[in-house]
């Protein structure tokens, strides 16, 4: 069985819903994971903000504007009165329920229930569309099998057992539709896998059923060797290893959610990135094998904060680094890069919710310097292995750009460089010209 995930832009309007319907209606057994229609989750977040601030009148007006958009989707998507009526009833049911949250008290639990509506609506609309076209399918409610534990991690045993139980109720069925992103928590409450979690859902499902392949369908034809938003003439990468893909996803390549590689990697299930608008393109295949050598791609991660702790006592201070790391751990903040010297240690973070408290705790051990508006440039490929001089090439490409930190050697697959965010576009273009277009140098 195959798992196919389609993002919000892939089901962003009636025409695209129809295109996805055609893509998934062949005879290959599959589970299709859908995101909310593009823009819906953002709209629901805004609606929730109105409810938190008790702006009930504006919340009602805004909710009706979203409902009107979906009424138009129903009108354009369905061709028969029967299914127009079913679609209208579906929209009214969900939006009447959303309106019930417009009360004096609005909680975080209720917000997650509100946010789940996007996926619940998109999957129901897809099932109705397929049924109207005479295509057999079954809706698998993700809330019946997708669960996270008390540590916010997927409950793999629960998911596998309950998903298989759900599927077994429909022998002979070849097409299942389910929701991405949403789940239940350890207490049975509606929760989610955080933003971008539909990729994660697809990978978790693929691992749970031992899928032959997991396909992530978006509006771009796979990983490119640089960011096409900032660099012209980028090229698609045909093949990446799991480790290479994970590095690119974590350090800024938007096509794949960073967490989505791990479940597939654990079960060695190939992941293929495909373009909904160019379905015949082979996309990028991600497997456990490493093919080719040298530098394959460049990515950039914005919103980085650099922190340096300077202490004359560090050289002889046994356990100093452990104490520093414990501070970040206590505030549940991950470190991206780290560099040390005899009298200082520098690190980067991209989560700033607890920055003030972290700085306060670090000041107990030395002088703390904080620099905002930084970007990590990640150069991915065979950086150590058999290739020679790869790191030198990356540094030479950035010879005119100030580099604050370098991380090299902790992975065979990347070298990470910290620069000012204002230098990002120049850096990406310089790397592209030097590494991938040597004739232009």
Summarize it:
The protein is an alpha/beta fold and 441 residues long.
Task: Characterize the structure shown.
The chain folds into two domains: 2-218, Carbamate kinase; 296-440, 2-Layer Sandwich (VC0802-like), CATH 3.30.2130. The protein has 441 residues and is α/β, with parallel strands linked by helices. It is built from 14 helices and 16 strands. Helix 1 (14-23) packs across helix 3 (56-77) and helix 7 packs across helix 8 (197-209). An eight-stranded mixed beta sheet has the order 3-4-2-1-7-9-10-8, sandwiched between helices.
Domain unit count: 2
CATH-defined topology of the largest domain: Carbamate kinase
Alpha plus pi helix count: 14
Highest-level CATH class of the largest domain: Alpha Beta
Q: Could you list the spans in which at least 5 consecutive residues all have pLDDT below 50?
A: none
Count the beta strands: 16
Q: End-to-end span in angstroms?
A: 48 Å
Q: Strand pairing plus helix content: what structural class?
A: alpha/beta
Any idea what the shape is?
Answer: globular
Mean pLDDT: 91
Strand content: 15-25%
Largest sheet: 8 strands, mixed
Query: In the CATH hierarchy, what is the architecture of the largest domain at level 2?
Result: 3-Layer(aba) Sandwich
Helix content: 25-40%
Q: Measured on Cα atoms, how large is the radius of gyration?
A: 24 Å
Relevant CATH superfamily of the largest domain: Acetylglutamate kinase-like
- For the largest beta sheet, what order do the strands appear in spatially? 3-4-2-1-7-9-10-8
List the helices and strands in order: EHEHHHHHEHEEEHEEHHEEEHEEHEHEEH
């Amino acid at each position: 069985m195959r798992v196919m995930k389609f993002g919000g832009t892939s089901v962003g309007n009636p025409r695209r819903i129809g295109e996805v319907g055609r893509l998934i209606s062949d005879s290959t057994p599959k589970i299709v994971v859908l995101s909310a229609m593009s823009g819906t989750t953002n709209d629901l977040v805004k609606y929730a903000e109105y409810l938190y601030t008790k702006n009930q009148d504006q919340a009602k007006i805004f909710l009706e504007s979203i409902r009107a958009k979906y009424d138009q989707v129903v009108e354009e998507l369905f061709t028969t009165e029967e299914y127009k009526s079913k679609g209208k009833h579906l929209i009214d049911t969900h939006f009447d329920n959303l309106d019930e949250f417009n009360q004096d008290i609005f909680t975080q639990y209720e917000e997650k229930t509100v946010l789940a509506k996007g996926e619940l609506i998109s999957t129901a609309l897809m099932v109705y569309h397929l049924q109207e076209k005479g295509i057999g399918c079954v809706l698998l409610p993700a809330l019946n099998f997708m669960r996270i534990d008390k540590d916010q991690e997927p409950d793999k045993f629960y998911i596998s057992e309950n998903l298989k139980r759900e599927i077994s109720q429909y022998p002979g069925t070849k097409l299942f539709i389910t929701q991405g992103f949403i789940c239940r928590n350890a207490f049975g409450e509606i929760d989610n896998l955080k933003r971008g979690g539909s990729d994660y859902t697809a990978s978790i499902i693929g691992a749970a059923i031992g899928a032959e392949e997991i396909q992530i369908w978006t509006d771009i034809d796979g990983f490119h060797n640089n960011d096409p938003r900032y660099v012209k003439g980028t090229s698609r990468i045909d093949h990446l290893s799991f480790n290479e893909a994970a590095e690119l996803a974590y350090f800024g390549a938007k096509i794949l959610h960073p967490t989505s590689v791990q479940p597939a990697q654990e079960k060695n299930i190939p992941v293929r990135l495909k373009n909904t608008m160019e379905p015949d393109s082979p996309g990028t295949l991600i497997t456990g094998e490493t093919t080719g050598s040298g530098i394959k791609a460049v990515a950039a991660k914005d919103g980085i904060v650099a922190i340096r702790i300077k202490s004359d006592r560090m050289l002889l201070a046994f356990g100093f680094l452990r104490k520093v790391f414990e501070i970040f751990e206590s505030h549940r903040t991950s470190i991206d890069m780290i560099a040390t010297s005899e009298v200082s240690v520098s690190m980067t973070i991209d989560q700033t919710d607890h920055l003030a408290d972290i700085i306060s705790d670090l000041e107990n051990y030395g002088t703390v310097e904080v620099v905002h508006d930084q970007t990590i440039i990640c150069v991915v490929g065979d950086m150590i292995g058999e290739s020679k001089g790869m790191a030198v090439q990356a540094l030479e490409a950035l010879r005119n750009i100030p580099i604050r930190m370098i991380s090299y050697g902790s992975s065979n697959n990347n070298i990470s460089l910290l620069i000012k965010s204002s230098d990002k576009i120049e850096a990406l273009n310089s790397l592209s010209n030097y590494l991938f277009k040597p004739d232009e140098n």
